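Backbones bend. Our protein:
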Amino acid sequence: MDVPTVTLRGGIAAPQIGFGTWTLRGSVCERAVRAALDNGYRHIDTAEMYQNEDAVGRAINAVDRDALFLTSKVWPDHLHAHDVRRACEGSLSRLDTDYLDLYLIHWPNSSVPVEETIEALQTLQDDGLVRAWGVSNFTRAHLEKARRYGTIATNQVELHPFFNQRDLADYCDSIGLPITAYRPLAKGRVNHDHVLSGIALRHSRSPAQVALRWITQHGHLAIPRTTNDAHMRENIGIFDFQLDGSEMARIDALQQGERLVAIAGAEFDHAEP
């Protein structure tokens, strides 16, 4: 399966469509990741909070590690320097790998100086434990502060046709920072939207494929999650058709400002991916 790559800030290339593993545990997770690999996925996303790194590790042993792009995340309670290294080493042990391609701050935490965390992440990179580091769920304000201290590879955020993060996306584009979209199919809601369905019919595609193509044509990466083999093939098989400018604009207009991952006060709620 020929999947285009996006060059993250810092110079490493990541497959534009990846496989998300949030909520997948144990044998279900292991089977799903193996199926994803069988269907051509080479970008796998996990996190220490997902409690599935051991299952992901067993699954990825089926492929050449050098052909895989592997992402994990450090939980916001572990952002002090000594905790960052301990958390990373724990993830590496559970994943049974010597390095991560990408290591993300899972959520911002205002109680820990971001420069301390970034210095620890940079040390992990210098030591060869991670190839690149980035952030997740960072707002523009978080990014403006964090980017003073190092090169952020990507910002992984909720993004789908009903929550298109346009202001954040425009800012990230202006500084050359790729976005990685989680919840790209809005928990399946894209399949029931008449605009997406109409465009899908025109292209003989599914609404989910249209939503993912819209994301990738905006230059973002996406990490959909499914345990359905047919849906896995659909989600990765989106690069042989193109949405025209009118179709892109119609999908842009679906924005409702409705976040599926709740926030609480000044910082994000830690209950979601």
